[in-house]
Each structure stands twice: as C-alpha cells, then as structure tokens.
C-alpha cells in the first residue's frame, strides 16, 4: 500500500513546504483539501494549475485526491451540487489526481430513502462527466452516511465505475461498524482509505497514529488479508482542532507506525 497525508493537517501551508514534508518523511502522495483558504481550490486559473502539477511531478509526489465539500444528498436543486462536483473534477483532471472526495450531507429531516435517491441521482449524472475526464468520484463514509453499509445504499443505486467510496475509519467506527464489515460493504467500490486516531467517541481531537482507540491495526489487517494494495491517507484534522499538536512533528512517527502495521499484517 502507498501512504499519503491530507493538507487538512497543515492548513494554509504553501505547497513547497507540503511537498518537502512528503519527501522528507517518505509519503508517496498528498490529498489536497480544496477550499479557498488553501493554496489549491477550484478557483485556480489554468496557469496556476499547470504550475501545481509541475511542482508535484518534480518532487516525485502524487496528487492522491481533491478533497471537496460538495454534499450530494443535501436538499435543494440538483444543478448547483452537480456544478460543484464538476468543478472539482476539472481541478482533479488538471492536477492529475485520480479521485475527488464528496460528502453525503443529507439533512436530518430527510428520510434515508429520499437522501439515497437524491445522492444517487446527482452522482449518476456527474459520473458520465467524470468518466470523460478519467477521474473517480468517491463518496466518503461521513455525516449522514457514516458506515459502509449506508454508503453502499447510494453506490448500489448509482452502479457506475466512476463513482466509488472513500473509507474514513473514524466515521465507520463511530457508526458501530467493524472493519471487516466495512470492507465487505465497500470493497467493490473502494478508492482509498483515510486513517486517523482519536481519544474516544466523545473526544475526536486528532492524536498521533496508534495513540488512540481507532481500529487501525484491524483495518490494515483486513485490507492486507484481501490483497488490497491501494492508498492509506492520514487525515489529521488540525484545521478543526487548533490546539492539536502540529502534524509536521508527527509525520515521521506516523509513517513508521503505518509501516509496522503493514509489515505485521503481511
């Protein structure tokens, strides 16, 4: 498996510094948080996109994915959501990223059947555009659809190879799902896996990998046992927890911890 980290852990850091961290600490790729407060977002012009792609290529680091914030199950008109997804797909294509991330984001007032149908309709529409660009849309296990089983309700309705799943190990655990259950649900559609660690279900402040309660060893073991050889991406949520330790100080030990888990599972 290849290792990456998300720029959510280094909010606002210039790309040159992000790439230096990746190469210094042995990460093969970076997931780019696509938000206007970050160096990379859908508002970049083509010249800057070309420069960003060249910076990554020169560093020998992959752009794993573009982590967007489109909420595909949210109530309202389809067109603004589909347009937001398309803008993320354009950015991914221009940067050479194979994936974009979207959220479910259903409203508590929606029934699960309605939310699933809305998400599937929008993802199905965007899927053809994604296929033309050679990019996959990944629905993250998050918020209203935090388990693999919930995400599969949507993906089963879509049934398109350019729409898949992003497994966030924290949300599936918070949803009461075991890693073996999540993998069984998502394996036909799995793009990559976000790893992280926290103290408890009531304290989700990010911790160094291995210092908390999330089933990282079990998750890696399940993936290895089934011969999955994709990406593990450390999503350290520093942007939402300003008092958390700097990710820069943890990346080396985090890489070593994941390498140990991979060796043990092999």
For the largest sheet, list the strands in their spatial order: 1-2-3-4-5-6-7-8
Order of helices and strands: EHEHEHEHEHEHHEHEH
Please report which band the strand proportion falls in: under 5%, 5-15%, 15-25%, 25-35%, 35-45% or over 45%: 15-25%
- DSSP helical segment count: 9
**What is the average of the pLDDT values?**
98
Work out the radius of gyration: 17 Å
Strand count, sense and barrel status of the largest sheet are: 8 strands, parallel, barrel
Measure the end-to-end span. 11 Å
Number of strands: 8
**Helix/sheet category:** alpha/beta
Q: Which stretches are low in confidence, meaning pLDDT under 50 for 5 or more residues running?
A: none
- Described by the principal axes of the CA atoms, the overall outline is globular
In percent, how helical is the residue content?
A: 40-55%
Description of the molecule:
With 266 residues, the protein is of the alpha/beta class. It is 43% helix and 17% strand. It is built from nine helices and eight strands. The chain has helices spanning 15-25, 46-59, 78-95, 112-133, 148-158, 169-174, 179-186, 216-225, 251-265; strands spanning 2-6, 29-33, 62-71, 99-103, 136-140, 163-168, 190-195, 231-234. It has an eight-stranded parallel barrel with strand order 1-2-3-4-5-6-7-8, surrounded by seven helices. Helix 5 links the parallel strand 5 and strand 6 (163-168). Helix 4 packs across helix 5 (148-158), helix 5 runs parallel beside helix 7 and helix 8 (216-225) crosses helix 9. It is globular, with a radius of gyration of 17 Å. The termini are close together.
């Amino acid at each position: 498996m290849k290792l990456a980290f998300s720029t959510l852990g280094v909010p606002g850091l210039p790309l040159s510094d992000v790439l230096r961290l990746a190469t210094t600490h042995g990460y093969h790729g970076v997931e780019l948080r696509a938000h206007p407060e970050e160096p990379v977002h859908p508002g970049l012009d083509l010249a800057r996109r070309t420069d960003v792609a060249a910076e990554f290529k020169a560093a020998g680091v992959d752009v794993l994915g573009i982590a967007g914030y489109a909420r595909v199950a949210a109530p309202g008109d389809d067109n603004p959501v589909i347009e937001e997804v398309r803008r993320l797909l354009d950015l991914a294509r221009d940067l050479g990223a194979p994936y974009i991330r979207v959220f479910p984001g259903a409203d508590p007032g929606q029934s699960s059947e309605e939310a699933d149908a809305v998400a599937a309709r929008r993802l199905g529409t965007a899927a053809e555009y994604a296929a033309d660009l050679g990019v996959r849309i990944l629905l993250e296990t998050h918020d209203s659809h935090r388990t693999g089983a919930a995400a599969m309700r949507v993906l089963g309705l879509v049934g398109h190879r350019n729409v898949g799943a992003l497994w966030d190990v924290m949300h599936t655990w918070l949803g009461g799902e075991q890693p073996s259950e999540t993998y069984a649900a998502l394996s036909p559609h799995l793009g990559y896996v976000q790893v992280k660690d926290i103290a408890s279900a009531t304290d989700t402040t990010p911790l160094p990998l291995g210092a908390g309660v999330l089933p990282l060893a079990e998750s890696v073991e399940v993936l290895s046992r089934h011969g999955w050889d994709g990406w593990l991406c450390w999503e350290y949520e520093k942007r939402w927890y300003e008092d958390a330790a700097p990710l820069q100080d943890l990346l080396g030990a985090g890489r070593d911890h994941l390498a140990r888990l991979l060796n043990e599972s092999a």
